[in-house]
Amino acid sequence: MSEATKRLGRGLDELLAEIETAPPSRLLEIVPEAIDPNPAQPRHNFAPERLDELVDSIARHGILQPLVVRDGASPGRYELIAGERRLRAARRLGLATVPAIRIEVPDERLLELALVENLQRQSLDPIEEAHAYRRLLESYGYTQDEVAQRVGRSRSAVANALRLLELPEPVKEALRAGKLTAGHGRALAGLRDPALQQTLAQRAIRDGMSVREIEAAVQRHKGKGGSPRQRRRERRERPPYLEQLETELARRLGTRVRIEQRARARGRIVIDFHDDEQFEHLLERLS
Fold it and tell me: Which of 84, 112, 129, 246 is catalytic?
């Protein structure tokens, strides 16, 4: 495990507990304009109708759960950790101040905290969630198992989410817009032909197909549909043992490892590193 991973893994539970159990004396009242956005925010899509509902709720009842912030880059400035929708709603309402809890969080924990907070609220679309998992993998050298442990998901849930990033852009856009569910996306990811994925996605949206219906259609295409070249490609499904080997190598090396198998027993192993220090560490482990 890399040093960055070790640093990120320590104390996250304590930080979350600190946020949840902070006494009233820890509350601050902060001017909304003094709070800068979280640069690690995994969420990019904010549904206008949901924000309108929150504005109405805050207008009637106030902000019931404080925002979470840390000290900003300059005196009197704060950086948001959790609560971006509440902050946006407060600004729309013109509130003079918002309640907030200030905690100390190093840069490398920002993404993880923001991701956990959004997952708990189920406020990420499937593509945002998948991108956040990939950022944890690539930025900190996590394995999929480690990502799953950090965010309270199963390893298969993380792996299935990451598969959505391989879908064609029009299909991912449908997932972002809520026209297709993550279940639809996972089923479509079982096909290798991008054009066929798009065609089936459009049909699912047009006809209101369920996930089970999409899964059945995918199985029909894999079993007897598609071109001869596509059928040959499907027969060369990735053996399960390769994924097991990737996990074991990643655990031993402390970084992401990919095994790419090609025809005639050829292929390559790709080992990720993120800085000179990690590169030197890998050289020592491999020598």
Answer: 84
Q: Provide the token pair at 200.
A: 């089936």
Would you state the structure tokens that stand for residue 263, as one six-digit string?
């025809």
Quickly count: other Cβ atoms within 10 Å of residue 206's Cβ.
Answer: 8
30 has which bridge partners?
98
Is 84 tagged catalytic? yes
pLDDT-flagged residues of the chain (< 70): 1-26, 40-47, 108, 117-123, 223-240, 262-265, 275
138 vs 255: CA distance, rounded Å: 8
Q: What pLDDT, in 10s, does the model give residues 214-254?
A: 998 888 887 655 555 555 554 455 666 777 788 778 777 77
In angstroms, the Cα distances linking 76 to 41, 65, 132 are: 21, 22, 30
Q: Where are the domains of the chain?
A: 3-106, 126-235, 240-286
* pLDDT of amino acid 1: 39
C-alpha distances (whole Å) from 250 to each of 255, 274, 278 are 5, 14, 13
Domain 126-235 is found in CATH 1.10.10.2830 = yes
Helix (H, G, I), strand (E, B) or coil at 261: strand
To the nearest 10°, the Cα dihedral for 106, 112, 114, 116? -140
pLDDT for the residue 44: 64
Question: Which of 276, 244, 271, 245 is CA-nearest to residue 256?
Answer: 271
Residue pair 130/166 in contact by the 8 Å Cβ criterion: no
192: helix, coil or strand? coil
Q: Which fold has domain 3-106?
A: 3.90.1530
